[in-house]
Amino acid sequence: MDGKISLKDAISIGIGGMVGGGIFAVLGLAVSLAKGGTPIAFLFAGLIALLTAYSYAKLSKKYPANGGTVSFIHQQYGNGIFAGGINNLLWISYIVMLALYSSAFGSYGAELISLTGNKEIDTRIFQSSIIAIALLINYLSVTLVGKIESIAVIVKLVILVGFIGVGFYGFTVHPENLDQLSPTNWENPLLLLSGGMVIFVAYEGFELIANSISDLKNKEKNTEKAYFGAVGFVVVLYILIAIVTVGALPFKEIASAQDYVLSKAAEPVLGKVGFTIISITALISTFSAINATVLGSGRVNYDIAEDNELPKYFCHKFWGKPIGLLITAILAIALVNLFNLQSISTAGSAGFLLIFSIVNYIGYKKHQELDSKKWIHLTASLLCFVAFVTLNIQQFSTNKMGVIIALGIIAFCFVIELIYKKTLLGKELR
User: Fold this and answer.
1) CA separation, residue 401 to residues 144, 331, 340 (Å)
2) Is 65 helix (H, G, I), strand (E, B) or coil?
């Protein structure tokens, strides 16, 4: 039977998943790490995303289940402690992403309010309330979540493409700004790679395509096109945004406006109007990302509990929806209020790099079934793992707390799974 989703729809899902809150949250952080080499940092991260998309495309075509990453893990590792630990890490990584997006929403929201002449508002008010509002919308209407996503994807893409056009026009007015992109202003290769890995969270959303492949029309022909079309478009988009941002502002100004740098980059050509337009776009974009992530993470949480990798309590309903939605939101609010942006970004990138390394390895192990090139899977798996290690080593010297949080989350996921499985096994034996 033919599917219900066209190739264009699948590509839109991937683009919408990637161009959410990530680029607004981590662009300033990337520039602080890579300086003039920020476009190269985005290229590094994009290449790893493209290689990983190959594994996802092949696995999605072979196992077109709605579980996506969760089902790929089960295909290789069953329902043991390792599979449970990785799937729990996926859920926790979604919570980290929620915190990252809400952090960006808070920063842009507070700056936008300050333009009205009001006193500075504590960003924590915005960070916490936007997650609560998204949770309420998810409880009231899943259909409304879908409508918000459809509108938000078009709005943010149109404005971001316009931002790039205005930025390149700005280079004709201030050609001297292009000097900042010169290799003399690039950081060393390790910092460029590390910058790319810290911002890897801006690419992770392509894996959402896996959840819709079972409904894709002409899966055999369109699966690879969906993944590579979405990731390829976003890689180019991010590199162009990075070029415009680095060329628009001196590094000192970028550093001082790190949390809302895209809005600041629109000011040199468009003034306060540009700042306001990009800030509103950031609010729409991060809100849509929060909305979709609350829904997606709640579903992942429910699926994992159904597979006995979390207590069955997570299958319970609250107000007609899985209680995992509420638990996910509460944990995200706690995380965003306790830790800074760089720590949250490091934890999110580390989690997804490890998960993607394992998914690529599964592709390598199953290459004969998948009729795929095993060297691509293996290269992608090794690159993700090397990036994971590099990220933690480099960040440990400047962002020790971020590394501790990242490694602590990973260890926690496996320890909890071990305890739960031992307890569950003990009950079954009794």
Assistant:
1) 38, 18, 9
2) coil
Q: How far apart are CA 112 and CA 118, in angstroms?
A: 10
Residues of the chain by 3-state class (helix, strand, coil), percent to 5: 85, 0, 15
| Nearest-10 crossing angle of helices 324-338, 267-306 | 140
Residues in the chain: 430
> Tokens 């495309």, residue?
57
> Tens digits of per-residue pLDDT, 143-198?
666 677 677 778 888 888 888 988 888 776 667 767 778 888 888 887 788 778 87
Report yes or no: 393 and 335 within 8 Å, Cβ to Cβ: no
Nearest Cα to Cα of residue 105 among 135, 134, 126: 126
Alpha-carbon distance of 368 to 228, in angstroms, equals: 21
Name the E strands within 74-176.
Answer: none
User: How far is 86 from 110, CA to CA, in rounded Å?
Assistant: 36
Q: What's the burial of 76, exposed, middle or buried (CB within 10 Å: 0-12/13-18/19+)? A: middle
Q: How far is Cα 76 from Cα 363, in angstroms, rounded to an integer?
A: 9
Contacts of 123 (CB under 8 A, 6+ apart): 103, 106, 107, 109, 110
For residue range 120-132, what is the model confidence (pLDDT) as tens digits? 667 778 888 888 8
323 contacts 333 by C-beta, under 8 angstroms: no
How much of the chain, in percent, has pLDDT values that exceed 90?
A: 18
Distance linking the first and last C-alpha atoms of the chain? 46
Residue whose tokens read 């540009």 = 274
**CA-to-CA distance for 430 and 425, rounded, in angstroms?**
9
User: If we measure between CA atoms, which residue out of 410, 357, 364 comes closest to residue 388?
Assistant: 357
The DSSP letter of residue 120 is: P
